[in-house]
Amino acid sequence: MKQKSLRTFDPAGVVFGVVVPLVVAALGLVLAYLWQGRLPEEVATHFSGTEPDDFSNPLSNAWTLAIAIVLVGGGCSAVASLARVLLIMRRTMLIIGLTVVGTIGVLQIATLVRELDMATAQSVTIPGWAMAVGTVVGFAAGLFGASRLRDHRERTVATSPPHSDLPRCSPELPLVVHVGASRVAGITVVAVSLAGAALTCYLSGSLWPVFLFAPLTILILSLLRFTVHIDSDGLYVSSLGMAAFDYDIDEITGASVRTVDPSKDFGGWGLRAKGRGNYAVATDAGPAAFVTFANGDRLTIGSADAKKIAGTLNTLTARTRSTSVD
User: Fold this and answer.
1) What is the Cα–Cα distance from 246 to 77, expressed in whole angstroms?
2) Distance in angstroms (rounded) separating the CA atoms of residues 188 and 81
3) % of the chain with per-residue pLDDT over 70
4) CB 177 within 8 Å of CB 303
5) H or E stretch at 164
6) What pairing do the DSSP bridges indicate for beta strands 278-282 and 242-248?
7) Residues 293, 158 contacting (CB under 8 angstroms)
8) Where would I find the beta strands (DSSP E) of 241-285?
9) What is the pLDDT of residues 44-70, one digit of tens each?
């Protein structure tokens, strides 16, 4: 059994979710101060299409962007530092937050570089490529940081075996079940994203929007498709190769099978939360494994293999409790 952890903050979450946004914000400020003598009296702060339509003092603009990076991007990514918040939420918020940080940070620096030694910023154009590069770099940093996060929540051990009325089976371990949106749904998401990217490319007259839509599409698909892994250690649900839920076998109190309608029962499809501790991988209507845990958490996993998932978990937990008693 994994050791309980009383951590309040995840070290990796602090580094990627708090320190990185602060460093990027500080870098923009430092460059603005260092380049102040080479920048126009007023730099571009807003663009209509690719042309600037609003201007302000370089240092004032640098502080505004620094605050935006810290409050918007850092505000999202800082959730990753909270060790006991649901792991999948921390990872998702970190990816979103650092994508925002990367986009704003790279765009700010690229725009400043374009304005160096210019008498006026009236003729500067927005560097669209910088938005694409910043988005990709931020998304990649968020994805890497998310992979370094760990589940430090406090684990509660169950003491009684699952009720005898709950399903049992002869487990074939490890049991690996892929659940999630159908291929048609996945193709639909990609098609909608491509349509949005194509329209944006047409309106901007550039290909850089493709790089903005790609991370967004990957993130959406990651929240619609999951892998359920069950072995003698416990239940592990992953997305993009990273844990969404990770429970020890000692934490499970039982698993049953029920019929679920994602829209009616959880307000939509994908990873859902309905109240504190009530989570669902609601990717399809029909049978679902309903798993309960000693800490009060409940996890619903929609799958045609719901009976096998529930039976395997009950059999393994019953064996564990029996061995503990002996």
Assistant:
1) 21
2) 34
3) 94
4) yes
5) none
6) unpaired
7) yes
8) 242-248, 252-260, 270-273, 278-282
9) 887 776 677 788 899 999 999 999 999
